[in-house]
Structure formats: C-alpha cells, structure tokens
Amino acid sequence: MKKILTVLGARPQFIKASVVSTQIADSSSLDEVIVHTGQHFDANMSDVFFEELGMRTPKYQLNINGGAHGEMTGRMLIEVEKVVLSERPDIVLVYGDTNSTLAGALVASKLHIPVAHVEAGLRSRNLKMPEEINRILTDRISTWLFTPTESATKNLLQEGVSETAIYQVGDVMYDVALQHGAKVSPHGGILEQLRLNPKQYILVTIHRAENTDNDTVLRRIVEALSSTANSIMPIVWPVHPRTKGRLESLGLLESISADVLLVDPVGYLDMVQLEKHSSLVVTDSGGVQKEAFFHGVPCVTLREETEWVELVEAGWNQLMPPTSDVETIRTAMRHAIKKSPIVVFPYGNGSAAHEIIKELEA
Ligand code: UDP
C-alpha cells in the first residue's frame, strides 16, 4: 500500500481534490491522509465542500490562517513538517498555487519525499501575483507534474522540465463540473431563493489581491458593476471574505446598486447552478473562468492576464483590465453576453483524476 499525504487548505483545492480523493478511496493500492492547513476556514469556504463533494474528513486540521504571506507559509512549513515526519508518506500530493501548495511541496522535497503537483505548468507571467511564485517553485521541486492543458505542458518544456516528468492528464475541475453540471436545474434552489430568472442575470466573483487590495481598482469594479446592473441586467455576487472586508473598510457597500445582489459565498452545487444558468460570468477567479466555459457561458475576466489562454483565443473569455474606465468595462460586458464562441476541447475528456491515480499507482 502506498501512502499519499494530501496537503490542501483553500476552497478551489477542496473542489479539485474531491475527484482525486474519492478515486484514491476506491484504489486497492493507495491510501490517503489529508492535511487541511486551515488557510480557508469558514464553514462556507471549507466544510461545505467536504460535505457536498463526499470527501473524507481531514485527519489533520492545522488552523493556520491570516497574517502576511511569509508568516502564513512559515507556520505551515513548521506544522506540515511535523505531520510528514510522523506519517512518513510515500508521496505528497498538492494542488494549484496557494501558500498551502508551496508549503506542502517544500516540506516534502526537503525530506526527499516525491511531490505530485496537480495543475502544474500554469503561468500568468506576472511575478507580482503570489500564486505565480507558488506555482513556479512548486513545479520546480515536483516529481510528477500533472498538467491540465497543452499550453501548461508547453510552459514546462520551455522552462527545461524533462518531458518524462510531465503528464498531461486534463483538468480535474472539468471532471468535477461534468459530474455535477448535469444535475442542476434552471428552476428552484438558489435561483428561486434569490428570485433570479435563468439567463437573465450576471454572476460575479472577485477575490484576487491585485483587485481587492488596490483601492482605486476596487472602487472602479464596484462602479462598473453597479452601472451594468442598473442598465443591462441584475447581478448576483457571492462575496469572498477578503473582498467583503475590503468593501467594508472602504465604505463601498452602501454605494453598490440594489440590483447587485450581494450574498455570502455559496456551496459548490449552488455555484454550479448559478454559473450554468447565468447569461454572463464576470470574475477574476481562475476556476470560475473555466467553469463558465464548462457550462457554456461567456466570461469577462477582470485581470490583465490569464493562465487559461485557450479560452481567450477561442472567444469564450475576454480579458478586461479593471483599470479600464467604467464605460469600457460595461460595454465589454454587454457585448460578451451576445457572443457565440467557437467549440473547443482544451481540458481533456473528464478523466483527469483517473489518469492521475493510474500514474501514482504505477
Ligand atoms: N466557488 C464556490 N462558491 C463561491 C465562489 C466560488 O463554490 O461562492 C467555487 C467555484 O465554483 C470554483 C472555485 O470555488 O470551483 C474557485 O475558487 P476561487 O475563485 O476561490 O479560486 P481560484 O480558482 O481563483 O484559485
């Protein structure tokens, strides 16, 4: 039996890990121990995903959150190392690009335990993003680099990574979306609770530091969303805790139009229902950009660049730097609703988790 120690801590990681963890549970040669760093800890940012997606409860809950990046990562290194030393796993498995990803990979590699990185090879080429630093460093010290796309594979090859370490398996988020997307109805559920009509609302999420931590940019986004909701169609915005804190401290909550429906973060199944039946997704999230596409909805991404370049090329996603003026942002949203992008299949065939398990078993 090979022991896999999975280190995770943030919302998108619970969603990505859900498909892999349920398949590890079915494997006769793999055993999994989950370590939750505590990076995301609210019930609606963490517990709900374990419950809804049928994941095993983490054996370790480290409760590490808050503080600056160095402090958070440093505390994770200390605590994850203790767990790894006592569990002595054969493989450490990490996902994506958060501080929990880097901490898990760094601890393991220094203890000479091979690291498997799911969602390897993504690059924004913007080193100001903490996520970009976490990705590059994690990829550099990983043994198995599981890439979601052709472009991610190319990035690694360009950086000199050996072809034999790269496994282009497809995107685990696509696996999850396929499992749950078919089940959601255009009626009832959260749509009824929020009195939203299918294809008559825009779904928004904002949480990247470059948008939330810059006062001018956050004000611009709020203004553009209010103006869009007043003149085009209502907006529903599940507000990330970080963004909520910033909106409160800048006194922006009162200025937001009543047609922008601010709600707490929602569970994954509610999110899929909101995504699938929206007319447009506006986001700065990596995962939500792709999920819009998985559910056939166009997307405007409020960022300068994206790691998911294939969706921009195919016309599913339009980048809109949030430093643009309000009218430009609003016009981009209006045009995006009417788009008919071309059909593409860049994320594999929904068997990414299966491919990952096959490789780790071997
Ligand atoms: N998500 C969710 N509820 C929300 C907002 C997002 O379940 O209120 C899900 C979303 O469907 C996607 C993931 O969280 O699967 C994306 O996470 P996030 O935007 O926090 O991180 P990123 O993808 O940018 O790393």
Automatic annotation (TrEMBL):
Question: Is the keyword Isomerase assigned to this protein?
Answer: yes
Please name the Gene3D superfamilies in this protein's record.
Glycogen Phosphorylase B (3.40.50.2000)
Enumerate the Pfam families for this protein: Epimerase_2
Q: Which keywords accompany this UniProt record?
A: Isomerase
Residue ranges crossing the lipid bilayer per the database entry: none
Domain of life, source organism = Bacteria
Q: What are the residue boundaries of the UDP-N-acetylglucosamine 2-epimerase domain, all occurrences included?
A: 24-360
Xref: InterPro entries = UDP_GlcNAc_Epimerase_2_dom, WecB-like
Q: So what family is this one in?
A: Belongs to the UDP-N-acetylglucosamine 2-epimerase family.
Output this protein's name: UDP-N-acetylglucosamine 2-epimerase (Non-hydrolyzing)
